[in-house]
Amino acid sequence: MAQDHPTASELLSAIADFLREEATPALDKAEPRLGFQMRVAVNSLAILERETRLGPAADAAEQARLVELLGHDGTLEDLNRELARQLRVGTRDQGDAALMAHLQATIADKIAIANPKWR
Amino acid sequence: MTVHRPDEAENVAAVLARVAGRHFGGAAAIERLRRESGGASRQTWSFDAIVDGARHELILRRDPPTLGAPRTKVETDRSVSIDRATEFRVLRAAFQAGVRAPEVLFELAPGDGLGEGFVMRRIGGTAIARKLLRDSPYDSARRKIASQLGEILARLHAVPAAGLPPLTRREAADHIAGQRRALDLLDRPQPVFELALSWLDRRKPAPTATPVLVHGDYRTGNYLADESGVTAILDWEGAHLGDPLEDLGWLCVKSWRFGAVDKPAGGFGSREELWSAYERAGGIRVDPARAHWWEVFGTVRWGIICHNQAWRHLSGAIKSMELASIGRRAVETEVDLLQLLKAKA
């Protein structure tokens, strides 16, 4: 059954905003070490907020590309294990354009969730 | 991070008074004792010892006595680190050879009850990258740090082997095997790291003819600097023997630029600036392809360290939100690796 509003993403944003704008400045005054930890926590909440929004579509696209690349179906985990094994033993390498396009797309989706400002 | 208990600080102060008294030859009073940083298993404490009216500004590095913790993946990850007794001897040899490093004074004895560790002189400056890269007191230091790091590294690599304790020799092939082992222990498929490790394997440099002392964690965040620039190189627990270019490559890993991405030398200058200072100070001639290889390797290494840090929390070894969150930083190195491999396929 669908949950009521706010959505997971909206609720996570509300929590992160509160912690960032109200709790962190107070904590910085009282206990700087905890202020730093709070920034880490707020940053992690922002990752989760993006993951709830972007994660499902990213996973589905990654799996579809892996099925295409490896030529058979499977779970995301199993397909990635197979690809990792091929890369370890060298049956695929960076000369494979389809492989590189897949990895670029996968990592672009991952960084868009984990740290979109990274360059 | 563990919250340290007041009784721990009292115990440390009492023992430090005794061991400082023993070293300096007189009754010692301990002042301004505080925990600096580090996790539960490796601690740094800052304190002053007052002996005969003279104030000695000091640092204690110690691994507290363990209670027989269970073997975890973390231990495997850390098995490449040297112990405190070896670190003491490496630091002493480096200091005597003129490397800008803290001067170590004395070791703890087993009967002292503080675990394994040693005391060294405290040196001024900050290790906080964000301050060094952005704050105004460091405006002129910022222009010097890249070349200072090159000069200091040349001296570090020239530390005579005769003065060093036995250290593990690790060449390119050993490092690749080690990272693959780490991936196997983490047991999650990592296509980008596998791709990069195979790329590295096919291009790995031959073992060095004469392995040198390698610092092993030579990067921004692991040295102190003040308004005049670098004052001391810290965090020697990754010391080993190997290829001098390993340290140069590691310093240029993008994660150590802390946002100053267009300044590869630790966020402070160009690779060429770093290399020419290194060569001028007596370091070997830097082969750019070999340095690039070590930069790619360093990027893989930091990515896998990120996963290992998260694992320290996930395995239950240390409860830490901060460590857990580092796991999500690994993808930053995957972005960097795809860029690096594209630049020089």
Structural features, described:
The complex is a heterodimer of chains A (119) and B (345). Chain A has helices at residues 8-30, 32-70, 76-89, 97-114. With 119 residues, chain A is mainly α. Chain A has one domain (8-114). The longest helix of chain A has 39 residues, at 32-70. The radius of gyration of chain B is 20 Å and the shape is globular. Chain B starts with 5 loop residues before the first helix and ends with a helix. Chains A and B meet through helix 2, helix 3 and helix 4 of A and helix 7, helix 11 and helix 12 of B.
Keywords for this entry:
heterodimer, A: 4 helices, B: 345 residues, alpha+beta, Phosphorylase Kinase, domain 1, five-stranded antiparallel sheet, two-stranded antiparallel sheet, 12 helices, 9 strands, 45% helix
Tally of individual helices of chain A: 4
Shape of chain B: globular
The profile of the biggest β sheet of chain A is: none
Overall, the morphology of chain A is: elongated
Number of domains as seen in the coordinates of chain B = 3
**Strand line-up in the sheet with most strands of chain B:** 1-2-3-5-4
Quaternary organisation of the protein chains: heterodimer
Short synopsis of the structure:
Chain A has 119 residues and is mainly α. Chain A is built from 4 helices and no strands.
List the helices and strands and how they pair.
The complex is a heterodimer of chains A (119) and B (345).
Chain A: H1 8-30, H2 32-70, H3 76-89, H4 97-114
Chain B: H1 6-24, E1 28-37, E2 43-51, E3 54-63, H2 73-78, H3 84-96, E4 104-107, E5 116-121, H4 129-134, H5 139-157, H6 172-186, H7 191-202, E6 212-214, E7 223-226, E8 229-233, E9 240-242, H8 245-251, H9 271-280, H10 288-314, H11 321-326, H12 330-343
Antiparallel strand pairs in B: 1-2, 2-3, 3-5, 4-5, 6-9, 7-8
Helix pairs in contact in B: 5-9, 6-7, 6-10, 7-10, 7-12, 8-10, 10-12
